[in-house]
Design a protein that fits this description.
single chain, 505 residues, globular, FAD/NAD(P)-binding domain, six-stranded antiparallel beta sheet, disordered C terminus, 3 domains, Enolase-like, domain 1, eight-stranded mixed beta sheet
């Protein structure tokens, strides 16, 4: 049986580790059951943003009335929008062609499953079932995840769309006239924005009390308030039954509080209720790889699984399922496999953006998470309307679309979290990511630190704090003033001291 030095399962972020192995001259294998490039390229963050941007432009054109402009929205070219999306997805063909010419790499196209600690078999794609078996000295599992389908009675018979099938055989020739979105998380929020902007009557059904439950409650409330201008939103409702009536798909929903039921009809049902681990498909238990109670592969701080010489990264380990997190882990994993000194993965400042409307940027802890973790905190909050650029863009104090930034800061002024909702939120939150990581470039003292003070803080008193912002000029007028001047709104939450105020004007 053939044995490889390195086996990578999944062609997303895992390709980075694979490339290192290939360049080192190792005998390598890649297992992939779908298009090359992983979720992000083929059915996730990249193609969805190509649809999000024109939807953003539509909403911005509507907002322009607030600054004295009126645009008449005539129509959209769905064929052109779609073709631009498919052109980007088709980059997977270039990846596949490049990999096919690598002499020390063998690509297995099909579903892989472990047969033992270092054994694997792949059910190869094709008309006839062919099973290839081989061994590996090292494995990297970057197998991604798949849509979780909730237990809705009769749903399979009625049919539905997920993010996988949407970017596949169920991509619509034109936007649906109506759509029921089951779910209220990141994927649901983005697709609801896309289709509502293109004129689809969207109804969101979320079983939790709030949409986007990972966000600050006031961010979630702000988004829901703005969603309701363009779509129907049912929170605290569970989808329990699906049916077809008079040519439309019907979902019966049940109020989680009152128990009352209601029926909703639409042309299509979109399921976006979260992700499910692929560990069951891989049969990781055969390799001695442990999973948690939700089926995600357990990894330690070095991205090692419970099985020696088997690592896991990306969506497969269930931690912060974003491509930039997977890329970060791929670098850590590459170092820990091929480097001389192992490095730990640090998730203290994982950022993300939700490209809905209004847009969301997030890094670090929420206020509730910080308090639960035992921190004594300040919070700071500023609305877009507070600064000249925000007002210039049509945001006025008290208006229902006046976005804001919220900072969570500990008693030493160390930034614990930053949350932005409104235009350019993804850009505005990014500087806080850099600040939260700034201490890592400091030179640490050996044994002189107070044991009660983190080594970063003792070596670099300003490392990770907002003091570099405090001492910096902020471009005027610009949206950067929203985040920069938020510091002036610090107020104590559970700290018995007077807050520091900074008003940069």
């Amino acid at each position: 049986m053939e044995t490889f030095d390195l086996v990578v399962i999944g062609s997303g972020a895992g390709l980075s580790v694979l490339n290192t192995g290939i360049n080192m001259g190792l005998k390598c294998a890649l297992v992939e059951n779908s298009k090359m490039g992983g979720t992000c390229l083929n059915r996730g963050c990249i193609p969805s943003k190509i649809l999000v941007y024109p939807a953003d432009v539509i909403r911005e054109a509507e907002h322009a009335q607030k600054v004295g402009l009126e645009f008449i929205f005539k129509d959209f070219d769905w064929d052109l929008i779609s073709q631009r999306m498919w052109n980007q997805i088709d980059q997977n063909k270039e990846i596949e062609e490049g990999l096919s010419n690598v002499p020390n790499l063998k690509v297995y196209r099909g579903n892989g499953e472990f047969t033992g600690k270092y054994g694997i078999q792949v059910r190869m794609q094709g008309e006839e079932e062919v099973i290839e078996k081989f061994n590996g000295k090292r494995f990297v599992i970057s197998s991604g995840a798949r849509s979780f389908i909730p237990p809705i009675n009769n749903l399979d018979e009625v049919g539905y769309v997920t993010s996988e099938s949407f970017f596949g055989d169920k991509f619509p020739k034109k936007p649906w006239k109506s759509m029921i979105m089951v779910g209220g998380g990141v994927i649901a929020a983005e697709f609801s924005h896309i289709f509502s902007a293109f004129g689809t009557n969207v109804t969101i059904v979320e079983m939790l009390p709030k949409l986007l439950s990972t966000e600050e409650p006031e961010v979630s409330d702000f988004v829901e308030q703005n969603f309701k201008k363009h779509m129907e939103v049912y929170t605290n409702h569970r989808a329990i039954h699906a049916d077809i009536k008079k040519g439309y798909k019907r979902i019966t929903i049940k109020d989680q509080i009152t128990g009352e039921e209601e029926e909703i009809d639409a042309e299509e049902i979109f399921i976006a209720t979260g992700l499910k681990s692929n560990a069951d498909i891989l049969k990781v238990e055969n390799a001695g790889i442990e999973t948690d109670e939700h089926g995600w592969i357990k990894t330690n701080e070095y991205l090692e699984t419970s099985a020696e010489s088997i690592w896991c990264l990306g969506d497969a380990n269930g931690k912060y399922q974003f491509r930039h997190k997977a890329n970060y882990e791929a670098d850590i994993c590459t170092n820990n496999i091929f480097g001389e000194e192992k490095k730990k993965a640090d998730y203290a400042s994982v950022p993300w953006a939700i490209y809905t409307h209004p847009q969301i940027g997030h890094v670090g802890m929420t206020e509730a998470q910080a308090i639960k973790a035992g921190h004594k905190i300040y919070i700071a909050k500023r609305h877009y309307s507070f600064v000249a650029k925000g007002y210039a863009m049509g945001f006025e104090e008290g208006s229902d679309d006046d976005g804001f930034v919220k900072l969570v800061v500990d008693k030493s002024y160390r930034i614990l979290g930053a949350h932005v909702v409104g235009p350019h939120a993804a850009i505005l939150v990014q500087p806080f990511v850099y600040l939260m990581n700034s201490g890592f470039s400091c030179n640490f003292m050996d044994d002189e630190s107070d044991e009660h003070i983190p080594r970063v803080a003792s070596a670099c008193p300003e490392g990770g704090t907002f003091m570099p912002i405090y001492h910096s000029m902020v471009i005027h007028p610009s949206l950067n003033e929203v985040t920069g001047w938020a510091i002036g709104a610090l107020r104590p939450v559970n700290i018995k001291t007077k807050p520091h105020h900074y008003y940069p004007y």
